[in-house]
Amino acid sequence: MQVKVIGENGAETSTLDVADALINSKVNMSSLYEAIKNERANKRQGTSRTKSMAEVSGGGKRPWRQKGTGHARVGSSRSPLWTGGGHIHAIRPRDYHYEVPRKVKRLALMSVFSLKHGENSLRIVDDLSVEKPQTKRLAAFIKKIGKEGSRVAFIVGKTPETMKSYTNLILSLRNIRKLDVVNADSVAIHPLYYADEIFVTKSAMKKLSDRVQANAKAE
C-alpha cells in the first residue's frame, strides 16, 4: 500500500510502499489489551516492602494482664490491630515480569497501526538530518503538520543512513512536551495506543514494514 511521506516543510515529498498487513489489518482489541497490560506489568519495579509483626521493634511485654482489667486480651503492642504494629499480610518484593506470545505482540503492533491509520492519525515523515540537538526546530515541525495540543508518539529507527542523525534526533525530541520517543527496534504498544498522533520516520516505517512481511512469510 502506498502512503505519502511528508517533508519538513509540511508538503508531500514522496511515497512509501508499506505492507498492507501493518496498516490495513483488522483491529484486534484483545491483543492490544494483552500487549499493553504486559508492558505496564513489566515496568513495575516490585520493590515495595512492609514489615510483619515479627519484624517491627518493641512489643516484647504484654500491655496488661490477661484477666481482670475489663480490656480485651492482648499479647503484644505490636499487634497488627494497634498503631505501629506489623502488617497482617506484609508486602514483599516481587517480580511482575511475564511474557506474552510473539504472535500476540505482532498482532497488537499491526492493530495499533491499522487503528491510527484508519483514524488518519499516522504520519510518515522524511528522515530528518539533525547535525546537533535542535528541539525548537523539531517542535516547530511537529506543530506544523500535527494537530494542536495532541499527544504524539514519534518512532525513530537506526539505519546505516540515519546513524549520524539518530542520537541528535532523539535528543531533540525528548524535551518536547506531550511527546514519547519510540525505538523502531523495540516498539512499545502503550505509547502508540494512547497517542493522538503517530509520527514515523521513513526509514523506521520501512524497517517495521519489512519485519511484518518477513514474519508473514515465515508463518
Can you walk through the features of this model?
This protein has 219 residues and is α/β, with parallel strands linked by helices. The protein has two domains: 2-43 and 100-218, Ribosomal protein L4/L1 (Ribosomal Protein L4, Chain: A); 49-92, no CATH class. 37% of the residues lie in helices and 14% in strands. It has seven helices and six strands. It has helices at residues 20-23, 29-43, 102-118, 135-145, 163-173, 189-194, 202-218, and strands spanning 2-6, 12-17, 122-125, 152-156, 179-183, 197-201. It has a six-stranded mixed beta sheet. A hairpin with a 5-residue loop joins strand 1 and strand 2. Helix 2 crosses helix 3 and helix 4 packs across helix 5 (163-173). The two termini are 21 Å apart. The mean pLDDT is 90.
Strand order of the largest sheet: 2-1-3-6-4-5
What's the total count of β strands? 6
Mean pLDDT: 90
CATH top level class name of the largest domain? Alpha Beta
Write down the oligomeric state: single chain
Main sheet attributes: strand count, strand direction, barrel closure:
6 strands, mixed
